[in-house]
Amino acid sequence: MSDSTNADNELEPRLITETGLDQRLAAIIEPVLIDLGYRLIRVRMLNQNGATMQIMAERNDGTMDVEGCEEVSVAVSPVLDVEDPIDKEYHLEVSSPGIDRPMVRKSDFVRWQGHLLKCETSIIVGGRKRFRGKIVSSDVDGFTLERDEAPAGEEKAIVIPFTALADAKLILTDDLIRDALRADKLAKAEAANQNEAEDEE
């Protein structure tokens, strides 16, 4: 896994975006998150507890904690009250993308290279639309997946263009947990060092 964070890519567009009402919600929420130094992963209206608006977000360095969720919730609530996009009562739920996170930006595929992924495409790629395997490389146009169970007669490695991607999510493994915890620890240490440097100035 690359140790690079997404700090330089806070304005990197998402590959996978919402439709309908969720798209309208994202258009309201995303500018607020960017101003706070967070990135939107996704927004979904769910029929849980009546209705729940789920906002998945993270800091530009890829971290997220309870305080961050609280900060996002406090900042987003008044904007949603003013815009009033939902015509019924709902619960607001802000969370991190989690370890088995949705992959929504090109940098996600660089950052989590070497890990297992399941994805779906909007068009047929190599005779199918659903894939599972390890991310072996990534470039500006797409990523190469080494399938763990390629059918007989099919190539093990397949290149999936980003333009064809409909959904992608990391698969929880021991390696992923270890690397995610390491990345989180590094990001927190870097943030602490930055705060110390600012305090000394």
From TrEMBL:
InterPro entries cross-referenced by the UniProt entry: Ribosome_maturation_RimP, RimP_C, RimP_C_sf, RimP_N, RimP_N_sf
SUPFAM superfamilies assigned to the protein according to its UniProt record, in alphabetical order: YhbC-like, C-terminal domain (SSF74942), YhbC-like, N-terminal domain (SSF75420)
Residues of the Ribosome maturation factor RimP C-terminal domain: 103-173
GO cellular component: cytosol
TM region positions: none
Positions in coiled-coil regions: none
An example Gene Ontology biological process: ribosomal small subunit assembly
Keyword Cytoplasm: yes
Compartment annotation: Cytoplasm
Pfam families xref list: DUF150_C, RimP_N
Keywords assigned by UniProt, alphabetized: Cytoplasm, Ribosome biogenesis
HAMAP family hit by this protein: RimP
UniProt protein name: Ribosome maturation factor RimP
